[in-house]
Amino acid sequence: MYKYAMRSFSSSIPRNDFARMQLYGVVGKIVPRESKDYVPFLTYSLAVNRFIGFSEERTRATDWYNISVFDEKQISFFENHLGSGAVLIVDADVSQKQVADENGENKQIYTTLKQKKFDVVRFPKKPEAAEE
User: Fold this and answer.
1) pTM
2) How far apart are CA 14 and CA 35, in angstroms?
3) Which of 44, 72, 80, 116 has the fewest CB atoms found within 10 Å of its own CB?
4) How does pLDDT run across 61-81, given as a tens digit for each residue?
């Protein structure tokens, strides 16, 4: 008569070694690109506000993050429905790469954000039609 909920178990081991970031911000510039292997992807900038200080002395600062998108469905959605001004919540994998100059000195660390999924909080405003 009643169906009991069955709990399913996974035989895979949970992944403990990952770096992930979740960001809430406003989309800036969207740039379509192509990899060395001619794989299309896009990058976009995301403006994220943070607050500095306490109580009355709080000031707002904006951090800009560059995010890469490789999933074809997400790329298509960005190209057809999103633009500058859209507000998103983004889940991204984070990786860092250390690069040195030709002499092996002056090492710089580059942080890469690869979008895994996103949710649209607010779509961008549509441009108003030109008045005649």
Assistant:
1) 0.75
2) 31
3) 80
4) 999 999 999 999 999 999 999
